Amino acid sequence: MKETLQLCLDFLQTVEEPWIRYWLLEDIPKNSAMRKGFKQEILDHPSVQQLIDRCLQWPEPALKRHNDAKHPLHQMQLLLDLGLDRGDKPIQKIANRIMMFQSEEGPFLSQNLIPKHFGGTGEPALSWILCDTPLLLYFLIRAGYGKEPDVQSAIDHLASLVDDNGWRCKGSIPKFHGPGNKADFCPFANLIALKVFSQLPEFHEDEFILDAIDSFFWHWLNTNERKIYLFAMGTHFRRLKYPLVWYDLLNVCHTLSYFPHAHTHPVFAEMLEVITAKQQDSGGFIPESIFMNFKGWSFGQKKIESPMMTWKVYEMLNNLPEKIENS
Fold first, then answer.
1. Percentage of the chain modeled with pLDDT above 90
2. How confident is the model at residue 8 (pLDDT cuts 50, 70, 90)?
């Protein structure tokens, strides 16, 4: 893994994209002139401005598909990937809008449109379900709002919803239920809930976290037997794709890389091998699948190495301990 990590870095150091240049200076103080220059270049970039404008529409438009990469729910995560944080006014405005819509129980709310056959009304309504509210919480924690009382309340509520196999299909709509067995964990809900706790090291050895992680390993070993809530870990799952929006290999492995419990599991090693085997001679990684609304970005191309995808692989490998790097 150490060689793969170094090759990623060698490739990234050839990249001119301002967000990559910004991240490569992560050990340099944010108030340095060089980092400030790259940050301003990021903020001024027309494509970034488009993302910001869309995210400031929150909680509109109503969320109809949870894999809709053009929805603010996912695009606000991309803004953080590009280097924005609480110190930037657009992130402050987005965070303030999210925190305007919070249930008394703790979860932050989305404008969801749940079809009648899944227990909804078929009309847009403010609600929360476990395939959206963790992403709002994840955004706030990553952006720098993790110590805020309202965010702490949402963290406590999310922890209270876990079962013995991770997070299942639940929400504020009493009759809501996705297309799966009620006793199964929901792969996507489990993934984004673990994303939240990936940022909270104090929880990393708690039993409910270990159980949620083990559910992914069980799914990997049993994916040929049956799908879980229509999710599998087959060919489509294993294609490299960025941004990290849906239930796929890079998104799962990037999330698991934060947890020591995952590091020594043989299934995690298998998953990592699938990813690292796809590294190009240049050191970069090429998307094998793309979100069409990002065709104007370098990670929206399937013929060239993606700096941002390569950065995420680098970030993931950099989380691993020495015992894995030397394996």
1. 83
2. very high
User: Please, what is the average pLDDT of the chain?
Assistant: 94
CB of 252 closer than 8 Å to CB of 303: no
Helix 207-222 to helix 187-198 angle (10° resolution) is: 140
Rg of the chain over Cα atoms, rounded to whole angstroms, equals 19
The Cα-based distances of 260 to 265, 321, 323 in angstroms read 10, 8, 11
Q: Above 80 in pLDDT, residue 66? A: yes
Could you tell me which residues come within 8 angstroms of residue 32 by beta carbon, excluding any fewer than 6 positions away? 25
Write out the two tokens for 105. Answer: 């129980």
Beta bridge partners of 228: 231
pLDDT attached to residue 322: 67
* pTM summary value: 0.95
Calculate helix-pair angle for 72-81, 133-140, nearest 10 degrees: 30
What integer pLDDT is reported at residue 24 of this predicted model? 95
CB 170 within 8 A of CB 213: no
Closest by CA position to 183, among listed 164, 160, 201, 210: 164
Average pLDDT over residues 255-260: 98
* Amino acid at position 8, single letter: C
Contact present, 72 and 63 (Cβ < 8 Å): no
What's the pLDDT at 323? 45
Rounded Cα distance, 47 and 108, in Å:
27
175-183 long-range contacts, Cβ below 8 Å, gap at least 24? 175/119, 175/120, 176/114, 176/118, 176/119, 176/120, 176/129, 177/118, 177/119, 178/118, 178/131, 178/229, 179/118, 179/229, 179/230, 180/228, 180/229, 180/230, 181/228
Helices 187-198 and 249-256, packing angle to 10 deg: 40
